[in-house]
Design brief:
By secondary structure, the protein is an alpha/beta fold. It is 34% helix and 19% strand. It has seven helices and six strands, in the order βααβαβαααβαββ.
Length: 217
């Protein structure tokens, strides 16, 4: 891939929060980083210190914005925030234990386990945002940025659910992997895009194997 007009994205999950540790659903509830989360962000900053970022975008939630600020601290960059990079919205379920939520979901959907991946992908339970909608808003944002920042390096600080659904859309994860595979706090993926295609080049702290020469279907 020799096209110099491709935008290079470094898409980073935020550092650890207290609710991550307690396995409580955060969604769009605004939770800050723990001390360990700050350290994780600093470790990501060290890994990415040689990258000259031309722009930095973040979810407008504190845990993501703070992660982006730490990564770009020595680069003295302003962070542009947007709600489009927010975590999946879990509505009234935010603040609940994950296991409680999953139990309620299965109870609500009598045949949940028999649903196809496509049905689960599109399903809107209660006031919870569908996985399809999460991926759609994220990918639309990436495509617009890729066109506007061709040939540039762009930092994106976002959330586990956003990156997970993106990996499913890319075909690098199966839908079931969302609940099995891990994206470490402050882990990241590196991709290139011209606003149409996505080429995944690297994963650090993300449980994914990237085939040689992979391109999004």
């Amino acid at each position: 891939m020799k096209n110099n007009n491709y935008c290079t994205f470094y898409i980073v999950r935020h550092g650890e929060t207290d609710w991550n540790v307690k396995r409580i659903i955060q969604g769009q509830t605004d939770i800050d980083l723990t001390e360990n989360g700050i350290m994780q962000a600093k470790q990501a900053a060290e890994k990415l210190k040689k990258i000259k970022f031309d722009e930095a975008f973040s979810s407008d939630l504190r845990r993501a914005k703070r992660t982006a600020e730490i990564i770009t601290l020595e680069k003295k960059m302003a962070i542009k925030t947007t709600h489009l990079l927010r975590e999946k919205y879990y509505g009234k379920h935010e603040g609940k234990d994950y296991m409680v939520y999953e139990g309620e979901l299965k109870k609500h959907l009598e045949k949940y386990e028999s649903l196809t991946d496509e049905d689960r992908w599109k399903y809107k339970y209660s006031d919870v945002e569908s996985d399809e909608d999460v991926a759609s808003r994220f990918i639309t944002f990436l495509r617009e940025v890729a066109v506007a920042y061709g040939g540039k390096n762009v930092l994106i600080a976002t959330h586990n659910g956003v990156i997970s659904n993106f990996l499913v859309h890319l075909g690098l994860w199966e839908y079931k992997d969302i609940h099995v595979k891990k994206i470490k706090n402050a882990g990241y993926i590196k991709i290139k895009s011209d606003g149409i295609d996505f080429f995944v080049e690297k994963a650090d702290g993300v449980d994914v194997t990237i085939p040689s020469g992979y391109k999004m279907p």
